[in-house]
Design brief:
There is one protein chain. It contains 16 helices and 12 strands. The strands form 3 sheets. Strands 3, 9, 10, 11 and 12 form a 5-stranded antiparallel beta sheet that branches. It has a 5-stranded antiparallel beta sheet with strand order 4-5-6-7-8. A two-stranded antiparallel ribbon has the order 1-2. Helix 1 packs antiparallel against helix 4. It comes from Vannella robusta. InterPro entries: Cybc1, Rho_GTPase_activation_prot, RhoGAP_dom. This is Rho-GAP domain-containing protein.
Length: 415
């Protein structure tokens, strides 16, 4: 599998550019809006001219990408195996104080060593997409660090990206947390410095050979075996979940033109179709009736208590106002935009590239028998529900009718 276009473009740009540690420091100050805008350009399938940007922006976008992956690059299942390949030792060194009468004090010396053989074994158990992405990033940073014209080290890069790659677990004792941070940092250093050993099978030099103790070696082998089995099981379950999505069956003309249904469909424009939820009006009517009833005590007995009660009811209605879901598909811009609108919060929008769209599928609710919703699947593996909720419909006729109209729109050419 090839790494994502975002990773491929950024690594090529960084490899062709000279920079130093200051670029990493400036990356923390890059505006989030700019990072989000570049990321969304890739989501829409647009080309990003990296020659117009600088190194701090490239690092900031890469960090944002790694931090927002749906599944961590090193995977939740294998991260413990990675951690087991790193040995952290502490030694208390006595130090004589300037005042001899005060005796001595101690200084803690921390040593962190990596078992490259264990790291290589664990890396090779990663899913193909994770492996290719990690290899691409590690290879480029290895060449960057080795280039004498770049004043930057693997340790400095690890300081910037270790948390995104080796996020330490939460709710653990402070001293354990420190060890996990040190281990995560060393893992990233090893992936960069020892790229030939980890990814290309180069022999390990004697000075880099850090053997595991007998018991630890057995624990690592067992952990790696069980973690790999768990990862494979979850991948198979994920594939099974995808297969559980039903393909869209055709509908009759009578079903296609039936009143009401799953969503309102507006295809009046040749280059754009708008799907919108049709339950908002009914919900507002019910809430209006409820709010009117809540005002009855106010008219019967006008008092401070009834006023407060009515205000509380109106506030609850405002906070829980109906959510209108809108899907806008535009052929000219080649975008699929999903919006969630409500009067009590800003509009939430997600944008995907129309070129990445693969198919529509019907998903049945596990809790509500006979309730369905449409799912959009994309080539990059992302799935997006057309509606957050499920709609009751016999044999998903209402959902299939919307899908048929959407299919007809997508297959029609824009004049």
């Amino acid at each position: 599998d090839e790494p994502p276009a975002l990773v491929s473009d950024i690594t090529k740009y960084l490899e062709a550019t000279k920079f130093n540690e200051e670029s990493l420091q400036k990356a923390s100050n890059v505006a989030k809006l700019q990072v989000s805008s570049i990321t969304q350009s890739y989501v829409r399938g647009k080309n990003v001219p990296w020659s117009k940007f600088d190194v701090p922006i490239a690092f900031a976008v890469l960090k944002h990408f790694l931090a927002n992956l749906p599944y961590p690059l090193l995977t939740n299942q294998l991260i413990d195996c990675f951690m087991m390949t790193i040995e952290v030792t502490r030694e208390q060194i006595p130090i004589q104080t300037p005042d001899a009468s005060s005796g001595t004090t101690t200084h803690e010396k921390v040593s962190v060593k990596a078992n490259l053989n264990g790291i290589s074994q664990t890396v090779n158990r990663l899913p193909n997409g994770h492996y290719s992405t990690l290899r691409c990033i590690s290879k480029v940073f290895h060449s960057i660090v080795k280039d004498p014209q770049n004043c930057i080290t693997s340790s400095q890069i690890a300081d910037y990206l270790a948390f995104e790659l080796c996020n330490a677990k939460e709710n653990v004792p402070k001293d354990v947390m420190v060890d996990e941070v040190l281990k995560g940092h060393k893992i990233v250093e090893s992936l960069i410095d020892d790229y030939p050993v980890v990814f290309e099978g180069a022999p390990i030099e004697d000075r880099d050979l850090v053997p595991m103790a007998g018991n630890l070696q057995k624990q690592f082998a067992e952990q790696l075996r069980s973690s790999t089995m768990l990862l494979q099981a979850e991948l198979q379950q994920s594939l099974a979940d995808e297969e559980a999505l039903e393909d869209i069956e055709p509908v009759s003309n009578e079903e296609l033109n039936a009143p009401g249904g799953y969503l309102n469909v507006d295809s009046s424009k040749k280059d754009e179709i708008v799907l919108s939820s049709n339950h908002v009006g009914r919900e507002w009517m019910l809430m209006g009736l409820f709010s009117a009833c809540s005002l009855i005590p106010l008219f019967i007995s006008f008092s401070a208590m009834t006023v407060v009660f009515s205000i509380m009811i109106l506030a609850i209605i405002y906070i829980n106002s109906p959510r209108k879901e809108i899907i806008i598909i535009n052929k000219t811009n080649k975008t699929i935009r999903k919006e969630i609108r409500t009067i009590s919060a800003p509009t939430v929008a997600r944008v995907h590239s129309l070129d990445e769209f693969q198919r529509l599928a019907v998903e049945q609710s596990e809790k509500k028998n006979g309730a369905y919703r449409l799912i959009m699947e994309f080539k990059n593996g992302i799935t997006m529900p057309v509606t957050e909720g499920f709609f009751f419909s016999e044999k998903a006729i209402a959902q299939r009718a919307v899908a048929a109209k959407l299919k007809a729109f997508l297959e029609a050419s824009v004049a």
